[in-house]
Amino acid sequence: MHALLTRGFPTPVTLVVTYRRDDLHRTHPLQEVLAVWTRLPLVTRIDLEPLGSAHMPRLVTELDQAPTGAREVTEIVEKADGNPFFAEELVAGGDSSLVGHDLARLLRLRLDRLGEAARALVRAASLAGRSVDPDVLATVTGLSPDALDEALQEAIDHQILQPTGHGGFCFRHPLIGETVAQELLPDARRHR
């Protein structure tokens, strides 16, 4: 792909290259390539922001198998948090209170890329609600300050957690936390 974008063509050619920003952790090999591509004079980069709250309900109600109740539509819109793909998967799953199997598998892939300490930290964070204080994570996980910092940085680099701006952390997308929490066995929940 790099050669196609850098060599030029005698006639006009349009190439569309897409990727999900959330899937690229800080050390992902594509990060370096993207930095080069964005400096090329004929490359135009378009960042798509999450779909706005005015458009998400319309998307959900126009999908095949769309829910008919306003409460279900609202639940899906809130859970999808502006991500059309997540909205489609939630509708396809048929139960807006649960993350569907395919979507859960996709979200779990992010967790599988983490080291053991970062996975334990993310599991603990999944039970804390919308955001969590790092002191609480340290207490619950038993990680030393250095190990906690490393685990937090790893979870941030892999686009799982993000700082809240108030000293805490939250899941980059709420469905990631929900998926992790749903998979914890009752015994694991008690020990968190």
Q: Helix and strand layout, with pairings?
A:
Layout: H1 2-7, H2 29-37, H3 56-62, H4 70-80, H5 84-93, H6 101-112, H7 116-126, E1 131-132, H8 134-141, H9 145-157, E2 161-163, E3 169-171, H10 174-183, H11 186-190
CATH architecture of the largest domain: Orthogonal Bundle
Number of strands: 3
Main β-sheet: number of strands, strand sense, barrel status?
3 strands, antiparallel
CATH fold description of the largest domain: Arc Repressor Mutant, subunit A
- Strand order in space, largest sheet: 1-3-2
How far apart the termini lie comes to 46 Å
Helical content (DSSP H or I, runs of 4+) = 40-55%
- Going by CATH, the homologous superfamily of the largest domain would be Winged helix-like DNA-binding domain superfamily/Winged helix DNA-binding domain
Give me the number of helical elements. Answer: 11
The CATH C-level name of the largest domain is Mainly Alpha
Number of domains: 3
Overall shape? flat
Rg, Å, rounded: 20 Å
- What average pLDDT do the residues reach? 80
Beta-strand content estimate:
under 5%
Low-confidence stretches: none
Going by helix content, strand content and strand pairing, the class is mainly alpha
> What order do the SSEs take from the amino end to the carboxyl end, as H and E?
HHHHHHHEHHEEHH
Task: For the structure shown, list the relevant keywords.
192 residues; Arc Repressor Mutant, subunit A; three-stranded antiparallel beta sheet; mainly alpha
